[in-house]
């Protein structure tokens, strides 16, 4: 019993133990007082682990907004607020599962960090099937159910297991965790095969704004009828919904105004219903800002025009029309004639519609706030050049232009049907009507050559080109490019007014090749901060390169990026022989002195009558 006895002195004199404090205890008291001095209002959150370890850590007491901002860099996809599917919203060059694991580890540091990490972790939930890193190699082997007779085994379904765990966690605490979820994204195979489990999970998410749903739900498939009723009842705040062929009755029920009243994005695919009913449906959506219509044959110009018997078409920020041949430029101009629509529309995409590229200037003139324009058309006739002159493209707010004009499959490859369309685009750029344009996407690999500023070279059998007539001569030049290529740099030279990043893609290419075009000033030199002419390496643009390289964009130039350094001549036996010239041995400049002397001469020209030029000029420098 003597081991359980307490000293009478310690009971009668409680100050005796404090009088014999060790230096370590005195140091701990000083650290505690220091913490309370710098954090007078945070005494209840004092970190005892930091006190025992003699660590002064103010980062453990950061405010919640700053902590969430820091955690957003640890797990970037937790801040995803897009209305894209799981496949399209993936973060490039990152492993979403590893980022989520790091955020979960950070939530275990202290209670303050946990509350901020939990809010970020359940804000945008994303379920991935595999790790996008080297860790997947080891985990894929561990997931196999191996046995003595089956060494390979059947792999487990990691996405389904994660959905089961998530459903259990959310249903165990729906009041605190379920209300935090606003975006829920799942892989395609998981949402198509696990509809009942997905419905049980969605039932406890009242603040959901976007969720990946199976495609059968958008077509009113009876198999997904229960899931659709669950989404309508439990998730009234959805922002995006899609209706495909067969769901016209469900689309008509939106006109009541009690089903998803906060829809912002509506996607229609192969819908066949009365346009008047569709106008009533769209009029009830007060928050609608984006509309996409694909293969809707019943849409025409009257659908966008004003009518006294029908509600007005709502003003949109984004309008995407695909395979709608009855919508022409007249209908779009009638829609943009209203003050509210012309000030709201920022993105317009036209693909295989009735809007001809020659009438595109009229649409741009009525959309002063348009930032992105995309037109994709297949033409079978040349650009109209007869009759009334067509004004160039002009818009003071346009920043990105996708001008993808291709010829129909029935058109001959030697007809050059699309050449006039891209010449019209080049002349619009030289006219200066698109001052804020920064990126162009075209389906012609030779389009950057049109922006160099020089007329096309004459063929060898055509003789020497005639010089353009001077101001005092009355002769008429036979060169058709003499009048078109007269700019501030002199006869036969044109100049751009802004720096352009051009992305080109051929018919047989898989990726986009990019090049950057720098402008000239009035005297032929690069302006301040512009560098010198022409084409610079696309690595500075930060965009991916194509598989064939940028050198193939300019016709007649080799892989090195500069002028051709060899001459092709027949060998008399049906082949070709490369004959080296005087300066074929080196592709660089002769000396640094000559490179400084030739600064104003930007273009590699052939040798003059006085002899070869000093140094070999590089087209890309």
From TrEMBL:
All copies of domain F-box, residue ranges: 98-116
Organism, as annotated: Xylaria multiplex
UniProt region (Disordered), positions on chain: 1-28, 521-545, 564-621
Protein name per the record: F-box domain-containing protein
Pfam families the UniProt entry points to: F-box
SUPFAM superfamilies: RNI-like
Biased composition annotated in UniProt, kind: Low complexity: 13-22
């Amino acid at each position: 019993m003597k081991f359980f006895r307490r000293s009478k002195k310690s009971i009668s004199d409680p100050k005796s133990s404090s009088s014999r404090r060790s230096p370590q205890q005195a140091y701990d008291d000083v650290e505690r007082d220091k913490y309370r001095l710098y954090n007078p209002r945070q005494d209840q959150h004092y970190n005892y682990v930091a006190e025992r370890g003699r660590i002064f850590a103010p980062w453990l007491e950061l405010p919640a907004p700053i902590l969430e901002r820091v955690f957003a860099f640890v797990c970037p996809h937790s801040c995803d607020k897009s209305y894209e599917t799981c496949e399209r919203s993936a973060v490039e060059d990152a492993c979403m599962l590893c980022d989520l694991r790091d955020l979960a580890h950070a939530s275990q540091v202290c209670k303050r960090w946990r509350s901020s990490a939990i809010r970020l972790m359940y804000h945008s939930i994303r379920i991935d099937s595999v790790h996008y890193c080297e860790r997947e190699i080891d985990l894929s082997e561990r997931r196999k159910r191996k046995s003595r007779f089956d060494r390979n085994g059947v792999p487990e379904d990691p996405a389904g297991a994660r959905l089961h765990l998530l459903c259990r966690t959310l249903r165990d605490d729906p009041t605190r965790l379920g209300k935090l979820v606003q975006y829920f994204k799942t892989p395609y195979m998981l949402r198509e095969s696990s509809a009942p489990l997905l419905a049980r999970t969605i039932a406890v998410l009242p603040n959901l704004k976007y969720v990946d749903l199976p495609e059968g739900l958008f077509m009113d498939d009876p198999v997904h009828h229960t899931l659709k009723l669950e989404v309508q009842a439990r998730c009234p705040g959805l922002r995006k919904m899609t209706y495909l062929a067969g769901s016209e009755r469900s689309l008509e029920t939106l006109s009541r105004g009690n089903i998803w009243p906060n829809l912002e994005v509506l996607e229609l695919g192969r819908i066949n219903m009365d346009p008047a009913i569709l106008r009533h449906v769209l009029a009830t959506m007060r928050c609608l800002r984006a509309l996409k219509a694909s293969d809707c044959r019943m849409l025409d110009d009257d659908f966008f025009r004003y009518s006294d018997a029908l509600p007005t078409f709502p003003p949109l920020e984004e309008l995407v029309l695909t395979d709608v041949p009855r919508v022409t430029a007249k209908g779009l101009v009638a829609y943009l004639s209203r003050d509210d629509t012309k000030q709201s529309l920022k993105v317009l995409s036209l693909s295989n519609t009735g809007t001809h590229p020659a009438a595109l200037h009229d649409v741009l003139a009525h959309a002063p706030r348009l930032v992105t324009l995309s037109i994709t058309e297949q033409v079978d006739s040349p650009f109209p050049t007869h009759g009334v002159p067509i004004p160039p493209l002009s818009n003071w707010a346009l920043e990105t232009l996708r001008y993808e004009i291709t010829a129909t499959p029935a058109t001959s490859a030697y007809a050059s049907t699309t050449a006039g369309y891209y010449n019209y685009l080049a002349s619009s750029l030289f006219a200066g009507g698109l001052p804020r344009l920064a990126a162009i996407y075209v389906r012609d690999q030779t389009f950057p050559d049109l922006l160099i500023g020089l007329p096309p070279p004459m063929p060898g059998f055509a003789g020497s080109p005639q010089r353009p007539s001077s101001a005092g001569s009355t002769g008429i030049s036979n060169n058709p490019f003499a009048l078109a290529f007269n700019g501030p740099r002199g006869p036969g030279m044109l100049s751009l007014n802004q720096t352009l990043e051009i992305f080109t893609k051929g018919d047989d290419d898989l990726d986009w090749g990019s090049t950057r075009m720098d402008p000239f000033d009035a005297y032929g030199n690069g302006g301040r901060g512009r560098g010198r002419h022409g084409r610079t390496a696309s690595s500075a643009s930060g965009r991916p390169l194509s598989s064939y390289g940028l050198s193939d964009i300019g016709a007649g130039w080799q892989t090195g990026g500069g002028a051709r350094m060899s001459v092709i001549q027949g060998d008399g036996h049906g082949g070709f022989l490369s004959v080296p010239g005087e300066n074929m041995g080196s592709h660089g400049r002769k000396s640094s002195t000559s490179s400084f002397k030739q600064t104003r001469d930007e273009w590699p020209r052939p040798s003059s009558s006085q002899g070869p030029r000093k140094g070999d000029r590089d087209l890309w420098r």
